[in-house]
């Protein structure tokens, strides 16, 4: 009887693990207060400009690479991510690569690109 219970629990654990592995990860990422990214868009509800760091995962032989996105204050922006067809060090081998996913890593205030307000004169 105990052996059947262990086999049943083991099978249930395997099914749960497989379901978790195959299910897509939660896409929404709250990076800073008022800044969030989901799938291929980021939203900024603050008065500051943010620089968002993201890791793009690719299909094929191309490894992940990082990108930066500047997100204006009070805006929602489409994230344009791509995977290169030729990767350095492959001798010019061209591969078909698609974006498999985007992992949003961090958001940092970066008002350096903010334009100065007009002086009026």
Tell me about this structure:
- The chain has 121 residues and is α+β, with helices and mostly antiparallel strands.
- The chain has a domain at 35-111.
- It is built from 1 helix and 7 strands; from the N terminus they run H-E-E-E-E-E-E-E.
- The chain has one helix spanning 2-22; strands spanning 29-32, 35-38, 41-44, 50-58, 65-71, 75-78, 99-109.
- The chain has a 4-stranded antiparallel β-sheet, with no helix packed on it. A 3-stranded antiparallel β-sheet has the order 5-4-7, with no helix packed on it.
- It is globular, with a radius of gyration of 21 Å.
- The model is unreliable at 18-27 (pLDDT under 50).
Describe how the helices and strands are arranged:
Elements: H1 2-22, E1 29-32, E2 35-38, E3 41-44, E4 50-58, E5 65-71, E6 75-78, E7 99-109
Antiparallel strand pairs: 1-2, 2-3, 3-6, 4-5, 4-7
What's the rounded overall pLDDT mean? 77
What structural class should be given to the helix and strand makeup?
alpha+beta
Residue stretches low in confidence (pLDDT < 50, at least 5 long) are 18-27
- Report the sheet-strand fraction: 35-45%
First and last CA, distance: 89 Å
- Reading the helices and strands in chain order gives HEEEEEEE
Strand runs, count: 7
**Strands of the biggest beta sheet: in what spatial order?**
1-2-3-6
**Helical segment count:** 1
Q: What is the rounded Rg?
A: 21 Å
Query: What level of helicity do the residues show?
Result: 10-25%
Summarize the main sheet: 4 strands, antiparallel
Taken from the alpha-carbon principal axes, the silhouette is globular
